Amino acid sequence: MSVDLSALPRRVRVAVGAVVEVPLPSFAGSGNLWTARPADDPATAQAAEVTVRTEPAAVPSGEVGGEPPSSYSTPVVAVVTGRSPGAARWLLVLARPFAPDPPTAVHELTIDVSG
Description:
Blueprint: E1 11-15, E2 19-24, E3 33-38, E4 48-54, E5 76-82, E6 86-95, E7 105-114
Parallel strand pairs: 1-7
Antiparallel strand pairs: 2-5, 3-6, 4-5, 6-7
């Protein structure tokens, strides 16, 4: 499976205590889920915290028997929270939970946290 992540930012800036959301493409239909982990030693990633949040799928609007929705994708975002001034590198990993190695895709995100 080929995944194009070129639209994802390589770097984000966030203030201490602030939150930035980075939309991620959904590949849940193929069994792939996003996770986040420090790119290096977790101690060096303490300037920021990254979690992945999957939103509930929206209920299709319209009348019963009407046109189906154009997409069944589930909105997914990486939630970046500034913890302390500095920089951190995190990996956003797309993989199937039942077969995580090798992952389907990996995206490195650098986070600059300002005081």
